[in-house]
Design brief:
Layout: E1 2-10, E2 12-13, E3 16-22, E4 30-32, E5 35-37, H1 44-56, E6 58-73, E7 84-98, E8 108-115, E9 124-125, H2 126-137, E10 153-154
Parallel strand pairs: 1-7, 9-10
Antiparallel strand pairs: 1-5, 2-3, 3-4, 3-8, 6-7
């Protein structure tokens, strides 16, 4: 089983959430939250703003920790064809500057501010629903129920 520790930015402003269109090589396009893998010896707190800048062109500051999600992606659905565990740390991040742009030499084709009411109609990563649930409910434990995958919601 492979393992990944990642940090995700939940940027909400005026009833909109910042989403990134992820276009993996040979895979299907999905909308997701800005964020990604924590590098060796990197603090997830620093990783989330680094990833935000790399993927979207925006700068931001962390306002609070929202929670942690751990999910195992079955081998049949994982890109590498082997079971994969992703541990995601979700932060509420306020965008402070920069300009939206595609990720240079990356898998993020574009980033847009999307009305939260429109998210349910998008083909998206389960990470979007987890991040929005954490931001909406602010659970004291930092944990929300697992998001079912299927239909428009992907691993």
């Amino acid at each position: 089983m492979s393992f990944r520790l990642a940090a995700y930015a939940v940027c909400i402003e005026d009833g909109r959430v910042l989403l990134a269109r992820h276009v993996p090589q040979g895979g299907e396009t999905t909308w997701t939250l800005p964020g990604g893998g924590v590098e060796h010896a990197e603090d997830p707190f620093d990783a989330v703003t680094r990833e935000l800048a790399e993927e979207t062109g925006c700068h931001g500051i962390v306002e609070r920790l929202l929670g942690v999600d751990s999910r195992v992606i079955p081998a049949a659905a994982a890109r590498a064809g082997a079971e994969h565990q992703n541990v995601g740390i979700f932060y509420q991040v306020r965008v402070t500057g920069g300009q939206l742009r595609p990720e240079p030499n990356g898998e993020t084709a574009e980033s847009i501010w999307t009305p939260i009411a429109d998210v349910a109609r998008l083909r998206r990563s389960a990470l979007v629903d987890i991040g929005l649930a954490l931001a909406r409910t602010l659970p004291a434990t930092g944990h929300v129920a697992p998001v079912p995958v299927g239909g428009l919601i992907q691993h």
